[in-house]
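#struct-queue
[09:14] JT: dropping the first one here, sequence first, then the structure tokens:
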Amino acid sequence: MKKSIYTLVFALFCLGGYAQNILIEKSLFSSPRAIDVKGVSSSSPTFYFTSASEPNGLYVYDLKTMKLALDTTIKSPLGHHEVSSVIRLLQPRSNSLFLRNSITKDSLFFLHPTDSVTLPKFTYNPTTDYFYGVLDSQTVLRASISFDGLKSLDTVQVPHTNLHIKSISFFEDRIYYAATKNDTTSLYLLDDNEYVRLRYPLNFGEDTYGIQILSEDSLIVTRKRRAGEHELALLYATKIAMHPDSIQLIKQRALEKTTYDSIYTKDSVFVTESSLNTPRNTGKGRWALLVSRTTDAFKAMLTLNELLKIEPRAYSIKKDSVYFILGPRQLSEDALKTDSLYFAENGFSSLTYDLKQDSSTAPFDITVRLECLDAATGKRPPFRVDFYEYETNTLVKSTEVQEQEVCYLTYYPEYTLGLTVTAEGYLPYSKRFEPLQALNPSKRLEILALLQSQNLQKEQSFTLKNIYFDFDRYELKEVAKRELALVKNTLQEASTIHISGHTDNVGSEEYNQALSEKRAQAASAYITTMIEGPSISTEGKGETQPVATNNTEAGRAENRRCEVQLNSKAP
């Protein structure tokens, strides 16, 4: 079957009452037969679809890498929803429903093919934590599903309409329907019991077969490109829920015409981590609790990180040179009483703060949600987090995260910070946060770190992202010494340690080779001051093994590094 990725199409247009915008349409897949979107990932920019031309598999399209894959382990399901990066809800057919762990391959059945119950394709609503399926134009089936089973199954009546509803989507607290009227499929918003048709130049007069909302800035559309051919098209939009009468399409980023290998491999899902920007919830209303007010940015960052331990919706705003550390927004002063008692029980004094004109002000800080999984089992082990600032080597937050828990961190965009995760029985994980020029504080950065079990019966290597070097230097920075000290236990358990030094591509190959050797030796010298026992060897790789582009300063900085390899065998 023909698979291709077509040329990016730019179209300029005007919407009534709006200035000119740029529509970016990218064709992702084409087939002479029907295409059906089956589900959308909740933890990564991925969606799933099937084609009648290939009935024996499920297509996976990764929007981050623009890569298409065919998963032949799943045979054209009725529905597919990724509950997390590990757990999937599968509907092989209308009378079968189960959860599957994609790592362990274990399955938990809610409905067996032998049952007489028939279900429509389900769509998940994260706001209500229910799954919904369209029975007919006036009735929607609602299901509550947990790991304990199918908790409830009932119907919800929707306002009467002469539309033929085909599918349902959710964004924030609004419900959208892809529905057909007079043989034309459009997207409708159910607003105050009325169906409002959203206007946008989506189809250019051609037929549309299905519409699915991915996020606040993207749609998936199945439409006819020309007679006899269906095509899956990706359109970028902005703030869908903010414009009930129109979807304004704008240019988000430049996309290159590229062809990808469609062979499915495990590595196409993730290797060591994945990152995703998701909408940030700071509550609603003009009232909040004020925990601290200071002109010291670093002090504000420390306070907010402590507050995030008990309240993930906490945030900060900046007015002139003053930082305000706030609890979540509330609709009334009475709603603050519970927050106030909760804060006090956890050691935070607070005052009522009327946001007034600041109620719509975006947070000034960047919030990170960190989740760590065992890469082999998908379970959440306990781990320790150390979050520190680069220039002064000052600890911003250090906390022990219990089993099955996640961690929230925050920082201000002008700072560079390092993150080190250590867990008993696992190799360390580290990350560097660069200063941000373009700030999107309405988003939360979600990081999923896959921890590799430590196995000293074989060679294992890991990169400590904060063992970095200044340009043309080989002296260890204080931040580098901090990270090496944090992973001391991991290093101590090895029989042999091999350190490789690396450089960027500035300078001659001979010079960079010598510089990389000095960097490895500097790391080795410091490790020998911390631990005894393991045999340490060093090697310089020069500029031969970059991990990032050498065309930018940020990329070159990533390449000026050391990597560590452990082994339990005698040298």
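[09:21] JT: and here's the second one, same format:
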Amino acid sequence: MLTPRSHLAVKRGIYYYRRKLPSPHSGDIAVSLRTKGFREAQHLATLADRAFACFFKSNPHMTDVQQLLRQHLAEALTEDRERHLATPHGRPVYAPRTDVDDDTSPTDADLAMVSDWLDERREALATRDFSLVRNQVDEYMARHGLNETHRNELALGLLQVEVQYLETARQRVLTGVADSIALEPKDPVAQPDVRAVLATGPALSEVLPTFIDLMVKDAGWRGQTLLQNRGTYRIFALRCGDLPVMSYTRHHLRDMYDLLRGLPAMYAKSPRWKGMTPMQVAETTKSENLPRLTMKTMQRHFAALGSLFRYLIERGQYEGANPAHGFTFPQKGRPSQKRRMWEGEKLQRLFASPVWTGSKSAWQRSKPGCEIVKDEKYWLPLLGLYHGNRLEEFAQLTRSDVRKEGDIWYFDINDDGDKQVKNAQSKRRVPIHPVLLVAGFLEYVDGIAPSGSDHLFPQLPPGGADKKRGHAFTKWWTRYRRDVGLYEAGLDYHSFRHGVTTKLYAADVSDAIVDELTGHEGKGTSRVVYKKEMPLQKLYEAICKVEWLEVTVGAAK
């Protein structure tokens, strides 16, 4: 329905600004004015008219560049089809004949060659490396009289054209070049993809820094969460290109989904694939029987992408539905893995091992001897056993985090400075178990960390990709359990957490207190909001109910 002003249109009560592109261009542009008021829409349309005229006056070749790219792609695909038809049966279309032997078919040689070209161009597109198309850009700029302001647009477009051409070329290697038979004649006037043609605006690499900064400040992204989400956007840019954000469609997200489905579970950690792009890893391992990314991991990647596009939609930088929504991640049929806990004979053997009963030296902790070194290797397992903490929560503690209220000593778990916690519920007060007090923990604190900012475990520097202080301990803990014959998959430091939770529930401790002591996110609004007011005395009484008859180290020297 058109209003009296020809450049205004109404759709579901919202006014849109709509204009035909000036000759020699074709098509039109429609932009939501985000208002239901006619007078306001008239005013915005007047401003849009001025901007429209100014833009096409200063950018006369904007749409011409897109037309050149479409023509270039069409010519390349036509030439490629002729190349296929002219190649005799049994010979490769793209690869040198020397690449074909008894072990490599013409099809495999062509696929390998095209895949290499495709990965090279995708990476160039993601990193905005224009060296592959520099000569083509210079030629087009000179031939069509384009000014320097269009150089980057043209270079990105040519790289994208090559990616689309090579994707089609790979499909033709697999299925041939015979055209499908249309039962109805095609529309003689092809309608251009308005989103692809008119997608200007900021590129992905331009919006990401501001978005990520917002998530760090407002959504609490940090540590592993921040690293994982940065990794998601890096993979997306490599697979789909660093494009203007308006140009991304569900097809791009589909390509991302398919790529993740093809990645091995250990692709980012194994030295075998170091220096390879995710696309290269997926291509080279597609015929191997390897564990792939879990659906839970894929769902995490798409949650990060969904957050990005939701942000862009809210800011008016992306029109339409969120392209990352609507994908399914079925996880049925996966065997349940019940977490194990340290208990019984294994727990007794663990704390009867050299670290707690005497080792050969500070450097040979797994060999029996007479020396007991009370450092992070001694204390962290005990802290886990009696408190059920996450490793990083205690590995990063400073002297100022050990506090006293009345007669109760407690840990203040927080994210001050460079400390990290998993979520808001992880910030809490945890009374120190009396067994630790008897074992001399406070004396250890006074000796190792006299000042408030001193770390309780100074021999644990930040390490690993997410700079956690527990990184080095985790590696040692695995080696130590192997050395003393107690290594079992699924029975690790986190198993202490399961043990404490089990003990608390066995002693009829309420859910709210268990959640507060362990930093679990309780269910229900009232519990989340009010549990922080829980008296320290109640928490202390609960932690005292965690008893391990198998362990006598509490009375250690």
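[09:30] RK: nice, looked through the second one.
[09:31] RK: Residues 8-58 form one domain.
[09:31] JT: good to know. The radius of gyration is 31 Å.
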